[in-house]
Each structure stands twice: as C-alpha cells, then as structure tokens.
Amino acid sequence: MSVSRETIAARATGPGHGGIGVIRISGPAADRILQDLAGVCPAPRQAVLRPFRDAAGRAIDTGLILRLPGPHSYTGEDTVELHGHGGPAVLDAVLARVLELGARPARPGEFTERAFLNGRLDLAQAEAVADLIETADAAGARAAMRSLSGEFSRRIRALSEELTALRAWIEAALDFPEDDVDFLADRALDARLGALIEDCERVRTAAVTGRRLIEGATLVIAGAPNAGKSSLLNRLAGTDAAIVTEIPGTTRDVLREPIRLDGLPVTVIDTAGLRLTQDPVEREGVRRAQAAVADADRVLLVIDASDPQSLPEPLPAGVPVDCVYNKTDLAPEHDAADGFPISALTGAGMEDLRAHLRAVLLPAAAEESAFSARRRHLDALDEATAAIRAARAELLHTGAGELAAEQLRGAQQALGTITGEVTTEDLLGEIFGRFCIGK
Fold it and tell me: How far is CA 206 from CA 211, 213, 228, 258, 366, in A?
C-alpha cells in the first residue's frame, strides 16, 4: 500500500473555543504552504512567532510555527504545526487559507494512517492512539499508553518469533525424513507448543482487561419475571432508568444503561423475564434477552428469594454467572451460600455485590499489566491459539507434519493482522475511519 503524495491539513484541537488552536499540515507541500502563509521556513523543531496572512497579505492571526521535517515526524512526512488562537472563526480562516494554498482536508485518522504506512507506528500502536484519545479513565489511559509504547506489539512479535522457530523445526523434519530420529514426535516440540498456547492465553487475558478499561464491560441482568431485575438496574445506576411494576413481563426489550463501577465503565443491560410464553412480543423479548446473555462479559441471574419456585429458563452455556437473591427484605432467613443476598428496594447487600463485580470484571493485579486492545485483536488471538492447538493435535495423533506446519502458518498470519504485517485496504479504512479528524 502506498502513501498518497497529496498534502493534507486539519484542525488538530477539539471543536469550540479555546486559548490555543492547532492546525496540522503534512505532506510534500507543507514547507511551501508555510512559506506562502507566514513568509518564513524556520529551522526544524524551533518555535517561531509569525503572522499568518491571507492572499492579500492581511494578517489573519499571529501564532507559533513548528516545522517537523520527515522522516522524523509523527507521520514520517514533512509536517508543519500552526499554533494560533483557539477561536473557531480565526482557525477556520487560517485552515481555509492553507487549503487555498494547495492542501486538502484530511480524512478522519489520516495523519495516523500515514504514520502507519510510513512505518512510524504499527497497527496496534496506531489503534492505541485512538484509545488514548477516547478513554475517560486514568487506568484506561495507562493501558493505552502501554500499547502505544509498543508493549502489546512486542508480546505479539515474541509469539510470532516462536511460531517461526517451531515452523522451522517441523519443516526441517519434513526435509530429512530418512533420519532415524523422529523429530516430530520429540517431547520438547510438544512442550514448546504447549508453552506457546499458554503464552497466547496470557496475552489474551491482558488484552481482555485492557479492552474493558477502554470500551467497558457488559453486565447483563437476567432472571424470571418479577424477580427484581429492573429494580437492580436502577439501584446499580443510581437512577430510575427502568420502569418497575408488579406486573410480570413489564420489560419487553433490552434496556442499556452506562454506569461506572469504581472507575470501570460498564454497560448494564436489563432484559425481559426468561419464561415460556405465547405472547409474540414477550417471546421476542425473551429471544433478545438470551442473545444479550450469550454476548455478556458477566451475567447477574436474579432470583426472587421470597419465592423459591420462581426460577428462570436455563441460560446459554459458557457465560460467567453470579446468582443474586433479591427481595431478602421479604425473606430475611434466606440462605444464599451460592450467591449474593440483596434487596434492590433497600440497598442491602449492594456494596458486597459491587465489590465482587469490580474484582471479577477487572482484577487489580491484571489492571497494572493490561494494554489496550480491540475486539479484532481478541479474535485474532483466538484464531491463532486454535490453530496452534490444531497443529499440536496433528503431531500428537497423526504425525502429519505438513498439516501441522500449515496450521502454524495460519496462526502466524492471524497474529500478523494485529500489528499490520498482514492487512487489507478495507481493514485500514474501517480502523482509521473511526478516528477523529486531525489525528
């Protein structure tokens, strides 16, 4: 993929009024545009105060100029930054003059895309730039900085290097089949494959934690009708987000409410009561509830402690579940040894439940080693791990070295999509199209 030879420009500071506003210019015509705009092309990385002039020579604004020649700039290209006053009118006028002098408006994320294409950042680092901008939490910012500094990429490259070594081992064994020693049955090879699977899982765990810090966790409240699911949502949210009545089936659709759980962003989803019903609207609500449960990071299964018979339909398998026994104000003697006794009405037991959720959704130890990651990164790690497992099984059960080598090649390709060693134009468009303009 080639980098465009066009020169781009955009406002690099946020919309609205501010003391300072920055316009960024990147591309081969950056220095010429600067010369025409300010009448000077200063030494690299030295701030110079100059007026910015329109076509008639009238001053539009006065500000600092910073010139950053490529390849040692953010984008890897000749770059100019204009630091002027932060009023929208004056910034618009300066940017209009820059575009008049030959630049074009930058697309969202185009500066960072050029940094990737010019080798200044890999793809995981580039995505961490957007995470650092978007996160509203100090822990999330630390996770994004770890990825931006290259920690995530280094972990991925280490996995890829071990895959290269294992592929070479298998290929060598295939090239010399007449040797008396069966290298494919070597226990050391099996041990290294097992250790590599464990390493992949450790990287994924850190990535999951980082993703939760940036994007938040999804917590689904499920249970039978009238168990108190909506009351629990309101108690967690601290507001009357959901309608609460004594009529079973009041909640017909999923209701999403963003909250912060000791700093962790969490989307709490209230769902329709899980039961068999002939009502087509309620039946659709139950279907949507089950779909939400299947995609959840964790499920709170709410059970009416005052009515032991009010059990919901079974939940989909494979999702972490906490049993929450609600309405303990009506059943004070209830034994909740396998869950959390609460009263959504009075708030009893809520502090223990909150502390538990914070601990399981984001363990403190994991937070300190997390790096920001996206859903696509987790999918790629899952694909790579599955391929390594398949390669190990081939060697163990069939001794088919060719098939094992092909599985390891697929694992390496999956990891390559994380850092951008393997990529497509469509993927880049999807990633950088989500950035803000000016970055």
Answer: 9, 11, 34, 23, 7
